[in-house]
TrEMBL record, chain A:
Biased composition range(s): Low complexity: 206-217
Listed Gene3D superfamilies: Regulator of chromosome condensation 1/beta-lactamase-inhibitor protein II
Protein's UniProt keywords contain Repeat: yes
Biased composition (Gly residues): 1-14
Ranges of compositional bias, category Polar residues: 173-186
Naturally occurring in which organism (per UniProt): Musa troglodytarum (fe'i banana)
Renumbered residue ranges of the record's region Disordered: 1-20, 148-217
Name this polypeptide is given: E3 ubiquitin-protein ligase
InterPro entries: RCC1/BLIP-II (IPR009091), Reg_chr_condens (IPR000408), Ub_ligase/GEF_domain (IPR051210)
SUPFAM superfamilies to which the protein is assigned, alphabetical: RCC1/BLIP-II
Keywords: Repeat
UniProtKB/TrEMBL annotation, chain B:
Pfam family, any one: ARM_KDM8_N
Record bears the keyword Nucleus: yes
Name this protein carries in UniProt: Cupin superfamily protein
GO molecular function: dioxygenase activity; metal ion binding
InterPro entries noted in UniProt: ARM_KDM8_N, Cupin_8, JmjC_dom
UniProt keywords, alphabetically: Dioxygenase, Iron, Metal-binding, Nucleus, Oxidoreductase
Gene3D superfamilies assigned: Cupin
Organism: Musa troglodytarum
PROSITE patterns cross-referenced by the UniProt entry: JMJC
Membership in a protein family: Belongs to the JARID1 histone demethylase family.
Length: 468, 342
């Protein structure tokens, strides 16, 4: 799922300079003080002996001479967790194969990773240069450039070529698989547990013929996502089968059958990044106007004042985006009221949650369904309109960050407490038991100050540092 | 399905002693491969551990497949995930039964029958038969009686059914729950709050429990139009159970089996006076609560012509496509069977 979204922070993800500056500060800070990653919950697919972690447990880096140098936590998907380390900004993946011991995941770039996110079975990472890499479940990985080509071929022309790709109702053609074989070896030896399973599956259950022809088709190695020249991504979010990337405007690719790509259609697969018309369609949808009146609407500017001019935060599950003026836009599947529009219809285009206009939204996170007690409202009812959580334990607490897993949620407060609520069958809430909670409960974390929280599919990660 | 048999040999001896024995290796490998292509890496890994006897992994695989069945609209669910769900249910059932937890095992199999795909249908049926055969002695009496009613009772009570709870599906308190048939009866008896009445509605009971289907005779004239049967559903609820005013796209034969039901029909042409819900999912349902009509809000309903009747046991009503219908149970237990076709 998507990583924690900053609620109280300055936002401004659109400005590259600011983002870079912030990055540097974090590095300096990290050198001064060790950061710890805590994990609880369950990574399904692990060894038989392993039971869910019901309490926060520190995740240790393997053979790190200088101690644990964690930089950030990035949730993870079903069966793996993801965090970013300080050394070269490498991404570490903990997986069933390695139990709680993470293993470095090599990306074909020397540029540090600044953000990462995971969907159900795919990962996506942003470099300090604003480039995006994605890997894992093939359906979610746009047929990007073979990373081995990177050194030999000029980037610009290839990017041009990629962008003429447009939308396609087809998934990535099979031939792409063989083209990327060159990078598979690196992925195989280092990669996430996908490969282990794949290999085990193919060796045990499939004949040699089918495994050799099918293997590359099953999991994609890291691919550089081709974006228009000059597009600098600062943040990514991943849903079950789609991905959003933020550059001030929003780009989307992957599956869009319920409108989660916000393109106004139920297009089943978009194989290259497409601009999601957030500001435009949100302002027009609000006034229920036809496309014919667009020009007029744009010129009077009234709608823009409310909606804002760029996007500063994104989330996937269904899809959501927050504008610079704090308006919340939602799109995608709505059967359980996820879009907050007062209905259970799907939203095919970014649509402003008008009941929240007037509240300046800082950040947003989105889960799998977020109904049935995952909402923290104290009841098991689905809500089709946004509702403020009013549990007594939240009195005098200010939210700083929020994050959503498949069926649970977590929040970091400004005073450094972590609250969790929702599904707890696998200890996702870190409360020492496996009893579901329909109101937020504080997670006991001793002697550490939580700095970030990010939910994976059935687990939760916290980045914390020792008190001064 | 239809994959070539490739390297199936290593699984043979293992199959005899573990849960994997329920599903032959070839189909199993083909299904796991499809699931891998669907990104279900963690499922495949868990399913393999489950086949090796790991109950926790079996439960986790079932939970993962269940999530896949619910993380998008039903029509978008990839069929392989329904098969994967059935496979996980088989694993769970086998391991539970092995641990002596027969009830849990049967419940898992029923979930597989309700939500799973057709690929492992026979394996599920066989497992139900086998695990149910080891049942406690007090249940045996019922099984030996050839009488239809007892067969129904037995068939239903050893299985689990999907029931709706709440006055009707348009109420805010309405929800769907999976409960056992005995729980269902207990709730009917214990509840005096209409918001909590259980109702087994529109349930494909006869797909779930094949023995019961043998007792339903589809009249030949159902096929007179050359079309095929679309659904065969059971409706079972206590006095006061309501099916709110709605319409369906198919021809519908509604047979009253036990108890009496009040039925009201409005012709399809009355649609604009019946205030259908604006939401697409409920657009075949009227906003008008016929039990308590708000004429201020819905003035056009007043004076609207309708046809009504009380359907007695053994009677059958034909409801044309698009005709609005409403049903109210007016005796203490009501069982109806509807068949719909094109």
């Amino acid at each position: 799922m998507n990583g924690g979204e900053e609620v109280g922070g300055g936002g401004g993800g659109g400005e590259d300079m600011e983002e870079d500056g912030k990055e540097e500060m974090m590095v300096v800070e990290a050198r001064g003080r060790d950061k710890t990653v805590l994990m609880w919950g369950y990574l399904p697919g692990v060894s038989p002996q392993r039971s869910p972690l019901l309490h926060p447990v520190a995740v240790r880096m393997p053979d790190s001479p200088a101690g644990d140098r964690w930089k950030d936590v990035s949730g993870g998907g079903c069966g793996f967790a993801m965090a970013i380390s300080d050394d070269m900004g490498q991404s570490y993946v903990t997986s069933g194969k390695h139990e709680e011991t993470p293993e470095v995941f090599d990306l074909p770039t020397k540029v540090p990773i600044v953000k990462a996110a995971a969907g159900w079975a795919h990962c996506v990472a942003v470099t300090a240069q604003g480039e995006v890499y994605t890997w894992g479940w093939k359906e979610c990985v746009p047929f990007g450039r073979n990373v081995r080509d990177q050194s030999s071929s000029g980037g610009a022309s290839e990017k041009e070529e990629r962008h003429s790709g447009f939308m396609s109702d087809q998934v990535m053609p099979k031939s792409q698989g063989s083209r990327t074989t060159g990078t598979m070896s690196g992925f195989d030896s280092r990669g996430g547990d996908e490969n282990t399973k794949r290999r085990r599956l193919s060796s045990a259950k499939l004949g040699p013929e089918s495994s050799s022809s099918g293997e590359e088709a099953l999991s994609a190695p890291p691919c550089l996502v081709n974006l228009n020249v000059g597009v600098h991504i600062t943040c990514v979010a991943a849903g079950g089968r789609h991905t959003l990337a933020l550059s001030g405007q929003v780009w989307g690719w992957g599956y869009g059958g319920e409108g989660q790509l916000g393109l106004g259609t139920r297009i089943r697969n978009v194989s290259s990044p497409h601009p999601v018309p957030c500001i435009e369609s949100a302002s027009f949808t609000k006034d229920q106007s036809s496309p014919a009146t667009k020009g007029k609407q744009g010129s009077d500017g009234q709608a823009f004042k409310l909606i804002g001019t760029c996007i500063k935060a994104i989330a996937c599950g269904h899809s959501a985006a927050v504008t610079d003026t704090g308006a919340l836009l939602t799109f995608g599947w709505g059967l359980y009221g996820q879009c907050g529009q007062g209905s259970t219809d799907d939203e095919l285009s970014p649509t402003c949650v008008s009941s929240l206009l007037g509240v300046e939204i800082q950040g947003v996170a989105a889960g799998l369904w977020h109904t049935f007690g995952q909402l923290g409202t104290g009841s098991d009812q689905a809500e089709t309109l946004p509702k403020q959580l009013d549990a007594p334990c939240l009195e005098n607490k200010n939210a700083k960050l929020i994050s959503c897993g498949a069926r649970h949620s977590a929040m970091l407060t400004e005073d450094g407490q972590v609250f969790c609520w929702g599904w707890n069958k696998y200890g996702q809430l870190g409360l020492g038991d496996s009893i579901d909670r329909n109101i937020p409960a504080v997670v006991p974390i001793e002697n550490l100050q939580p700095k970030n929280v990010s939910c994976g599919w059935w687990h939760t990660l916290v980045l914390a540092e020792s008190p001064t | 399905m239809g994959e070539e048999p490739g390297g199936a040999a290593p699984g043979l001896e293992k199959a005899a002693e573990t849960a994997a024995g329920l599903v032959d290796e070839e189909r199993r490998a083909a299904l796991l491969r499809r699931i891998t292509e669907e990104g279900g890496f963690a499922y495949v890994s868990s399913a393999e551990k489950a086949a090796g006897g790991d109950l926790r992994a079996a439960e986790a695989a079932r939970e993962m497949a269940w999530e896949q069945l619910h993380s998008g609209p039903w029509h978008e669910v990839v069929p392989a995930w329904r098969e994967a769900y059935a496979m996980a249910c088989l694993h769970v059932a086998e391991l539970r039964a092995g641990a002596g937890e027969r009830k849990e095992a049967l419940r898992a199999l029923d979930m597989g029958l309700i939500m799973g795909g057709p690929l492992l249908r026979r394996d599920l049926d066989a497992a139900v038969e086998r695990i149910a055969a080891g049942k406690d002695t007090e249940d045996d009496a019922a099984a030996n009686v050839g009488d239809c009613a007892d067969k129904w009772w037995e068939g239903i009570s050893k299985n689990r059914d999907l029931a709706e709870v709440g006055k009707n599906y348009l109420c805010s308190e309405w929800k769907q729950e999976l409960i056992t048939f005995s729980q269902f009866l207990e709730r009917i008896q214990s509840t005096n709050c209409p918001a909590n009445v259980p109702y087994l509605a529109q349930h494909p009971l006869f797909d779930q429990i094949r023995e019961l289907r043998d007792d339903i005779m589809i009249p030949d004239y159902c096929f007179a139009g050359g079309g095929e049967l679309r659904s065969l559903n059971a409706w079972f609820g206590p006095l006061g159970t309501v099916t709110p005013l709605h319409h369906d796209p198919h021809h519908n034969l509604f047979a009253q089996v036990v108890g009496r039901k009040y039925i009201r029909l409005y012709p399809a042409s009355a649609s604009e006076n019946l205030y259908p819900h604006a939401e697409s999912m409920l657009s075949n349902s009227s906003q008008v609560d016929l039990d308590n009509i708000d004429y201020q809000e819905f003035p056009k309903v007043e004076g609207l012509d309708f046809i009504d009747c009380v359907l007695e046991e053994g009677e059958m009503l034909y409801i044309p496509p698009k005709w609005w219908h409403y049903g109210l149970a007016i005796s203490c237990f009501v069982l109806s069977v509807s068949t719909a076709g094109v």
